[in-house]
Amino acid sequence: xxxxxxxxxxxxxxxxxxxxxxxxxxxxxxxxxxxxxxxxxxxxxxxxxxxxxxxxxxxxxxxxxxxxxxxxxxxxxxxxxxxxxxxxxxxxxxxxxxxxxxxxxxxxxxxxxxxxxxxxxxxxxxxxxxxxxxxxxxxxxxxxxxxxxxxxxxxxxxxxxxxxxxxxxxxxxxxxxxxxxxxxxxxxxxxxxxxxxxxxxxxxxxxxxxxxxxxxxxxxxxxxxxxxxxxxxxxxxxxxxxxxxxxxxxxxxxxxxxxxx
Length: 261
Description:
By secondary structure, the chain is mostly helical. It contains ten helices and ten strands. 51% of the residues lie in helices and 10% in strands. Strands 1-2 form a two-stranded antiparallel ribbon. It has a two-stranded antiparallel sheet with strand order 3-6. A two-stranded antiparallel sheet has the order 4-5. Helix 3 packs across helix 4 and helix 8 crosses helix 10. It is globular.
């Protein structure tokens, strides 16, 4: 099987679609928009703009439908939500829904794909998790640490010096969460996957007020995704390690890898 398109992407797509209240049958459209918005925007900005417009138009139709026929989903919830005692604007409705759709699928899918890619290369680790499924909780945290999918851009609010590098107020900086999670001053054997790493204060989900809203459901998706793959598939390995392709853009992960079992 092909690990990303046939497994890692469909699972979070179905879950996020269910929570938002959008048809999971439109998975192909979501994935196409994700590629254009997240991966190829740097080389095809017009394509990214067009994909954003199509996504907003799609969500706008669904939001209007919920006004007359509300359901038990997040789109209906947004229509009644308030911020500081005022209703959300249409732009806020669309922005929140689009962000949850894009961020809720791509990040989890890439982390799940990286975990499968790693386990297909490290058969000892794969066998250990099959033999000791109680390790899946710490293993998920270790995959999040070692293969964090996201780096975050921020605007500096106060002049500061970091590592002898002066940074001025209003400068933009890129916080490499994957790099922080491989800091050998913080983690013993930082570049090694330790399935039972007991103390693991990684920053894969960010920190503070900007911490990832979906951290808990992402953890659950990763754990269940691995459990169900192990239950359905016997020992698996990469067909051709050199044929694995990787995504460009700010969210890292494999684009395609083929497994045999």
